[in-house]
Amino acid sequence: MESVLVTGANRGLGLEMVRQYGEDGNWRVYACCRRPGEAEALRRFAATFCDRVSVHRLDVADAGQIRALAAEMSGQSIDILINNAGTYGPSGERFGEADPEVWLHVLRVNTVGPALMAFSFAGSVGRSSRRVMATVSSRMGSLSDNTSGGRYAYRSSKAAANMVMKSLAVDLAERGIVCVALNPGWVRTDMGGPQAPLGPEQSVRGMRSVLAALRPKDSGRWFNHDGAEIPW
Q1: What residues contact 143, with CB distance under 8 A and at least 6 apart?
Q2: What is the pTM (predicted TM-score) of this model?
Q3: What are the C-alpha distances in Å from 199 to residues 88, 186, 229?
Q4: Is the dihedral of CA 154, 185, 209, 28 positive or negative?
């Protein structure tokens, strides 16, 4: 049985990832979120599939929690590590409106979090058969696709997260670990809003297909949920 660790697993895309991998029957799922006691839907699902889904407390903005969970799971191998936890920051942020402290928090969650996860779990991923690390990014982090401006905190955090994955692809190549960024599309979640054209089920199915098809030559690339490569 292969294994997958998902951060930000209490709702939206993260919860759907846990559901799909858990129902697949061939995966051991480590579902991580900040407040497991409040994650009712996740806890109900984990109780149904308790033989292969477990819930773990993890705030990716807390380096100590990341190290503690990695130490707790040091004997496990992780085939796919999915950095899904993220924050959008202030809504409607435009030129001159950025709050420095909020901006730093967005960077800590969206950029530093995935880097620290990679640093701490590289051993567990490297021992697995698939050896994949993925970070859920956004087209809003694409330099070439930015034609509307604004959203400084979120855009910069995702652009920086993309660079983190690019550097990890170089640094972890000798260990055979494939590192990629994923774009889920505009999805109907709390973050994406009700007007988004994609449902979580379709987005996650697509990303799972991308992850399943990854090869060493794909490391350091950025893929859309439909498998198309996205320009940085």
Answers
A1: 159, 232
A2: 0.94
A3: 18, 9, 21
A4: positive
